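Worked problem 6 (solution included).
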Amino acid sequence: MKTMYYLCMMLFLCSSSLSSSVVIKNYAEEKEASIKTDNTVYDDDYLFLGNELNFSGKSEDLIFLGKHLTFDGTTKLGLTAVGEHLIINGTTGNGIMAAAVNTVVNGPIHGNNYFAGKSINISEKSTIDGYVFMAGATLSIDGIVNGNVYAAAGQVLLNGTVNGDVKVYGGRITFGDKAHVNGNLIYGSKEKIDERAKSKITGTITHDKKLSCEMDNSAFNKTIKSIGAFFKVILFISFVLLGSLILLLPSFRYLDNKQTSQQFWNTFVWGIIPLLMYPAIIILCFVMIFSIPLGVMLILGLLPLFFFTYITGATLIGKQLVSVFKWNIVKRHYQFLIGAAALCIISIIPVLDFLSFLFVTACGLGVFVKFLFDKKTSL
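Solution. The predicted structure is:
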């Protein structure tokens, strides 16, 4: 699952780098105990892959994929971080997008922010100029937020100042002595807030009765689903961009050839057999002990194999749709976009999304099999 997540993130980062240059610091292959300290000033985006980073320099964007991040620097734009422990003491010009076990924000932040994790704390040292979206087990705001706050968690503690509206759902919502909300409050929890807490709200107070008798899991799950939907959109865009780049390779010129319905279904038949055999071959390799290394190689090859075959299969689907509707579209990139859009719509339907994945992968795999064993056959 971790490998899949990093692969998806890399697809997104690769597509993002098309419009700007990126400084890549890859320490992923070094020992986990390695700690990198960087105080350099960069004019480009900064991408770090590794264990731990202490960054006190400057960059356009900073993208962190690792375990521990201590950020004391400055970004002209945003900070995107995925790890275990994040300590953000520096300044960002366009907000933070962070997912970690523990996140602590101490610095001045400009722009909208998205946090997800087990524990999230905006300390009393921090001032955030922008909206804050938070989802986790324990959330606390001790600093100043000049913008609206949207939060969902098992426990929410407000002990700072929010100059904006607050919409919060949690199993337990607590207002500290220093809490102050210059705006409206909409909340959903098992218990209503007391009069002392109400005195800290300048605007209207609304208790969401629909959730008053429910556990906070529903609100938390809704937030997680929203975050998941957001990343699905980002990954789809990344898939389209990276797929369009791959289709520029000369070997994919075969996809420009005309395709009849019979050829399309023949290609599917060529691919469905090896697709069904692939898992059986892997199991056989592990059963025949001496071939275990081959089985491991086949497993490691699953992701790139499915990615390339899915791009090819999506292009064939687009070609078939162009043929059925008699559109005058001959470029493989346009056909790929049509096929990708159709598959995106189908993926919304349960069960069909998995079946369509197998079908498209089989079509793409069939192209490679035909190329290897039947060179006289065109697409």
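Discussion: The CA atoms of residues 2 and 8 lie 10 Å apart.
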